[in-house]
């Protein structure tokens, strides 16, 4: 039953990332059609996969399929795990120069003999739809204007949809990776939150998390966040996607102990069906934005917001 604790609603509302991602892809698809009709351009996304990791193969396939569904062209490059760093750099150089390619994503992690930082730095910043290049990391930190990493961007959009203005909220980010934790903290700071970044060396994690109006968890530890870590009414974003082998099948579970906390939360993302689908939708959003910017066209920044308004999004 929904009730109030102080002025906070405590009703464990589910944040339906899957449905929101579908709406966002629909709005992206309209914008892709607009580019095609008025500028004779089809946005292109190149996805590079090195090696045979089964989970990575699933993600790469999903990315390519969803790019196709919104009318983008997708280019898949699968390389053997033994490929040399030099050969991978040569492919990236070719993609950088290819005018049909507006966005480039190199699936991480890469095999140990390849230096990830060197590969990321080789991607043209304007095509870096992951937002991992130092130029984009710096630009996001300075004014939020760089290409923004897909998972933190998806989390921010979910939070703003749930809460509206985030100003003054205490956001605790659990995890400090370059892919999620650090860029998430920067985005929340940009949105005028008070931000605490906590991690594996933090003293008394439960006490820190209990201060959070917004809690974003990205640590990769199934069920780590428990009921007594939660301030009643807090909005909980679970970035963890952990594969648990159970009764001969694989179950996906998050970093938050969903069952134990749900009724205490103001709202919470499920796993699966929360952050994951939004990550891929934001990859398509970044690819669209990269295409606009490469054409020197103004990008409609309120695309996501409009996608979730009751009436269908309209193409300008
Ligand atoms: N350069 C790079 N960029 C990435 O964005 C990137 C990467 N490397 N390496 C791997 C991680 C992982 N990742 C996910 C994307 C979508 C889901 C997703 O859609 N998850 C579904 C479930 C999918 C399933 O069934 O496995 C869900 O949560 O509902 C999950 C994980 C992007 N990654
Ligand atoms: Mg950590």
UniProtKB/TrEMBL annotation:
> GO biological process: any one?
tetrahydrofolate interconversion
To which pathway does this protein belong? One-carbon metabolism; tetrahydrofolate interconversion
So what does this thing catalyse? (6R)-5,10-methylene-5,6,7,8-tetrahydrofolate + NADP(+) = (6R)-5,10-methenyltetrahydrofolate + NADPH; (6R)-5,10-methenyltetrahydrofolate + H2O = (6R)-10-formyltetrahydrofolate + H(+)
Q: Which Pfam families match?
A: THF_DHG_CYH (PF00763), THF_DHG_CYH_C (PF02882)
Q: Does the keyword Hydrolase apply?
A: yes
In this chain the Tetrahydrofolate dehydrogenase/cyclohydrolase catalytic domain maps to: 15-130
Outline the extent of the Tetrahydrofolate dehydrogenase/cyclohydrolase NAD(P)-binding domain: 149-293
Q: Which UniProt keywords are listed?
A: Amino-acid biosynthesis, Histidine biosynthesis, Hydrolase, Methionine biosynthesis, Multifunctional enzyme, NADP, One-carbon metabolism, Oxidoreductase, Purine biosynthesis
Q: What is its EC number?
A: 1.5.1.5, 3.5.4.9
Name one molecular function that GO assigns to this entry.
Answer: methylenetetrahydrofolate dehydrogenase (NADP+) activity
Annotated membrane-spanning segments are: none
What does the record note on quaternary structure? Answer: Homodimer.
Family membership, please give it.
Belongs to the tetrahydrofolate dehydrogenase/cyclohydrolase family.
What is the annotated role of this protein in its UniProt record? Catalyzes the oxidation of 5,10-methylenetetrahydrofolate to 5,10-methenyltetrahydrofolate and then the hydrolysis of 5,10-methenyltetrahydrofolate to 10-formyltetrahydrofolate.
Give the protein's recorded name: Bifunctional protein FolD
- Organism, scientific name: Vreelandella azerica
The gene for this chain is folD
């Amino acid at each position: 039953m929904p009730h109030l604790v102080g002025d906070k609603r405590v009703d464990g509302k589910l944040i339906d990332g899957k449905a929101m991602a579908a709406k966002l892809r629909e709005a992206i698809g309209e914008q892709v059609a607009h580019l095609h009709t008025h500028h004779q351009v089809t946005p292109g996304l190149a996805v590079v996969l090195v090696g045979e990791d089964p989970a990575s193969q699933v993600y790469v396939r999903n990315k390519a399929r969803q790019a196709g569904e919104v009318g983008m062209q997708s280019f898949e490059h699968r390389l053997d795990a033994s490929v040399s760093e030099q050969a991978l750099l040569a492919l990236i150089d070719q993609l950088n120069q290819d005018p049909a390619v507006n966005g480039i994503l190199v699936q991480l992690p890469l095999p140990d003999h390849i230096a990830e930082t060197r590969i990321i730095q080789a991607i043209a910043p304007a095509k870096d739809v992951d937002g991992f290049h130092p130029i984009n990391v710096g630009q996001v930190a300075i004014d939020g204007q760089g290409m923004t990493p897909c998972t933190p961007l998806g989390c921010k959009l979910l939070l703003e949809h749930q809460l509206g203005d985030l100003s003054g909220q205490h956001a605790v980010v659990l995890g400090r990776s370059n892919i999620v934790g650090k860029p998430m903290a920067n985005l929340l700071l940009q949105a005028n939150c008070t931000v605490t970044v906590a991690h594996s060396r933090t003293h008394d994690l439960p006490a820190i998390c209990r201060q959070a109006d917004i809690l974003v968890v990205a640590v990769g530890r199934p069920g780590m966040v428990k009921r007594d870590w939660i301030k009643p009414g807090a909005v909980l974003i679970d970035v963890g996607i952990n594969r648990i082998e159970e009764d001969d099948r694989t179950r996906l579970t998050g970093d938050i102990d969903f069952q134990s906390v749900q009724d205490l939360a103001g709202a919470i993302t499920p796993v699966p069906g929360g952050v994951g689908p939004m990550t891929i939708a934001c990859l398509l959003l970044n690819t669209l934005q990269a295409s606009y910017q490469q054409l020197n066209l103004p990008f409609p920044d309120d695309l996501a917001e409009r996608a979730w308004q009751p009436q269908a999004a309209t193409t300008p």
